Amino acid sequence: MRCDEILDKVYGYGGEEEIPFMLQLRIRFHLFFCPRCAQEIERFELARESLKNDFFYPSPGIKEAVMARITAELEAEEAGEGDPVRDNPGGISTKVWSFTGILIFISLASSFLSLDFAEVAAAGGISFLLPIGITIGVVITCYGALFIGSHLKEFSERFGLH
């Protein structure tokens, strides 16, 4: 048998069923002569055992907290009180996002107005201005993506993009 066939057989059984005896012999014979497959199957067995032995420990009280949140959302929807997730008092409002964006834009744009910047830019040339331009573009793009992503439902309602 080829390596890929052996690995497919081992992965196919995956510990849920008992591998037939003759197939076990063929696999062991192959593993005796193929160290790459032996290492791959050993890794697979270790991963399977670690997942079997409660790899993800249960979080106490998570079920009750999730069910309480779902119940509160369903009750709020039935009562017509709006979206409880968006109306969360702990969330960041659109005004704060807008103010922060304006502050970031002004601070990035005003960095070019200092007296030292002109001297450094003249000395460094394009090799200095290119990374600064890329950094400013990345900061503004990431901020815009986070802002739009966190207010996607609000924007889709406001602009009729349902």
Structural features, described:
With about 160 residues, the chain is an all-alpha fold. The protein has two domains: about 50 residues, no CATH class; about 70 residues. Helices cover about 75% and strands about 0% of the residues. The chain is built from eight helices and no strands. Helix 2 crosses helix 3 and helix 5 packs antiparallel against helix 7.
Mean pLDDT over the residues: 79
Biggest sheet, in brief? none
The helical percent reads: over 70%
- Class computed from helices, strands and strand pairing: mainly alpha
Termini separation: 55 Å
The helix/strand order is HHHHHHHH
Assembly type of the shown chains?
Answer: single chain
Poorly predicted regions: none
Q: Quote the beta fraction.
A: under 5%
Morphology: flat
Radius of gyration of CA atoms, rounded to a whole number: 29 Å
Give keywords.
0% strand, 162 residues, 73% helix, 2 domains, mainly alpha
Q: Layout of helices and strands, plus pairs?
A:
Blueprint: H1 3-13, H2 21-33, H3 35-52, H4 62-79, H5 94-110, H6 115-124, H7 126-150, H8 152-158
Helix pairs in contact: 1-3, 2-3, 5-7
In short:
This protein is mostly helical and 162 residues long.
